[in-house]
Fold this protein.
Amino acid sequence: MSLVSFFAHALGAFQQSKTSFRVLCTLPLSKPGALAPRPPGGDPLRTLLVLDSSFNPPTLAHQRMALSAMPTEPGPGSHRLLLLLAINNADKAPQPAAFPERLAMMYLFALELLRIRRGPGAELGDKEAEAVDIAVTTEPYFHSKSGAVAASDFYRGSGDGGGEAAPEQVYLTGFDTLIRVFDPKYYPDNSMRRALDPFLTRSRLRVTMRTDADWGDAAAQRAYLESLRGGRLDEVGGRAEWTDRVDMVEGRREGEAEAVISSTKVRQAVRGRDWAGLRELVSDGVAEWIETEGLYNEDPGRSMSELLSKP
């Protein structure tokens, strides 16, 4: 069974379950070819790093965000990385890549993360090593996604619901998302505190600054956070103390020649058959898969039935 067909079948089962969150696969695999979720074992999990994105496709910006948040020394138990994809209706073919295709790219992305963490030539068969989970949710917002993850037994050690406390969730995001999290328009009927109090009790935000023309320099972005701390959040129905749960970190440094990475640039590179340029935007494994599968070439997205029929 191909990666795409595996994830197409897994999505179908998720839909039928009527649940709002499910881990579909854990890397490294427990044995070759055994794509399956694997709950944490042994000591209680302390930190769950959550990279929530459309992954259309996963890019080198995602890679840097994940690697910078992971502890310096790889090792089991202390942390875990969750790659989380929000889906609306998996029966349709979202553009320009269908959900099973995105999940397949997330799998390749996770493999490369683990290889980078372990170093050249390392084997990935040790199931007790640090793990990366690939999961889906039907929830649209961070606070509701966090609630769905916390309500799941998956990260409570034994997985039987009777054991350990849920780990602290750390959401890896960009500065533009920080603005949306604290935008009152997403919380009708003055519901911001009701939504964000539980979220920011169990979770933190690790915000990578975007120093470009759209969002200003690092000083401007830090000043925005200080304005929230200084009373701006209280004015819109929030709490200034929430900012204590926000960690700002540098991304692309000011003056650095590195180009801004975007899905639009990925599609432009594919349309122009600029495979070298594509590898400046996504990792080699993801780039090879995009080229082989013919993604982002202006063709309509494939339907679920087509993806399920792939060998």
